[in-house]
Structure formats: structure tokens, C-alpha cells
Amino acid sequence: MSDLHPVQVVVTREVPPEHRATYEEWLDRLLTAAKARPGFVGATVVRPATDAEPYRVAASFASTEAMMEWEQSHERCRLLREIDRVVDTDVQWEVNTTLDAWFGVSEAPAAPKPIRWRMALVLFVVVSALVLSISPIVRALIPNAPPQLQLVASIGVDVLIMSYFVMPNLLPLLGSWLNERPAAGEATSAPAPTGPERA
I need a labelling partner for 94 at 20 to 30 A (CA). Which of 5, 22, 41, 142 fits? Predict the structure, then answer.
């Protein structure tokens, strides 16, 4: 059975100032390739404010399987070999599989967080739709059960549907919108690279 839990990868890479123009051009091509992959939710790039700071990329996928398929793709491997010939620096990365990965949230201190009211709006719409549609079905299936049991059964079905079907398929469409911010400061929204040889 496929692992449908959302997963996020936070990548940190030092890039010398003299190579940043080359790195930016390469990063744009890698991000475009990642965006086209199935199961990609969205990402945020935090660019260095000073010469001493690294690049940070937080990329979210609908599942571990989707992340692994991207990491093992020939296109990604080819692009990584290309940049390694120019920017030969250490890469650090973290993988987050908590509930927050639905929305691209990372435990890494420098990773940018999505807009909270948009997160709340998505959850409100999804939960409301499930409650309104599933509760009548549950009551029809167990009409003689106590109301408390009907409620618990309805909540259980709602959570399973939301976790395994709705959110993994909905967030690839909403990931960019959840993280979108005005074009100011250092953070910009974009699809992101991942993997042990991360960007």
C-alpha cells in the first residue's frame, strides 16, 4: 500500500557569491522540473541576505512515494551532476512527515511558514464538506445506534477520507496559494528540489 502521508524536505546549501548567478539559473530549471512531477505540493525558496548565509528550500510532497519518485528521476540526477561541477559545497537536509507537512510547515527555524488564515480556510471547507456529506450516510447505515456512536463513526470516516484521499489530492492544487506572499524581502514561492544531494 502506498504511503499517502504528506512529507516535506528542507534543504540548506552554501553557495559562494561568485557562483550565485549560475546557481540561480540552474535552480530555476530544477524547480520547473520538480513542479511538473506528480504529487508535488509546493515550495518556498529563502535566498541568503548576506554572503555568509546559505540558500534554503522547503519542498512539500503529497506522499513519501511522490518524493522518492522525484529524487530518483533521471532529470533530477542529471541536473545535480551539472551543478556539482560548479558548486561543490556541503548540503544539509531534513525530512518532516508530521501533520504540518500538509501545509509545507517545517521544524527548521529558517523555513518560511504558510499563511495561517489560508490554512484555516482550507481546513474549514474540507471538514465542513465531509461532515455535511458523511454524517447523513452514517445515520442511514446505523439508524438505531446512539447519537454519540453515530458521531464518533462519522468523525472516524471523515478523518480517514481527509488524511488519505482529500488532502493529498487537494494540496497539489493549493500549495502555491497557501504559501504565496507579496514579492518583498528574501522569500519567494517556487517549486523546490530535494534529496541527499539536494539543491
Answer: 22
Give the C-alpha separation, 88 to 13, whole Å: 10
The DSSP call for residue 39 is T
Rounded Cα distance between 68 and 169, Å, is 17
- Those residues whose C-beta lies under 8 Å from the C-beta of residue 191, and which sit 6 or more positions away, are 31, 32, 34, 35, 40, 42, 43, 59
Gap between the Cα atoms of 59 and 18, Å rounded: 26
Q: Which residues pair with 11 in a beta bridge?
A: 57, 93
Query: Per-residue pLDDT tens for 99-144?
Result: 555 554 444 444 445 677 888 898 899 999 999 999 999 999 999 9
Taking the C-alpha atoms of residue 37 and residue 67, their distance in angstroms, rounded to an integer, is 9
Q: What stretch(es) of the chain map to CATH 3.30.70.100?
A: 7-112+176-189
What CATH class does 7-112+176-189 carry? alpha beta
Question: What's phi and psi for 101, nearest 5 deg?
Answer: -65, -20
Number of helices (H) and strands (E) in the chain: give both, helices first: 6, 5
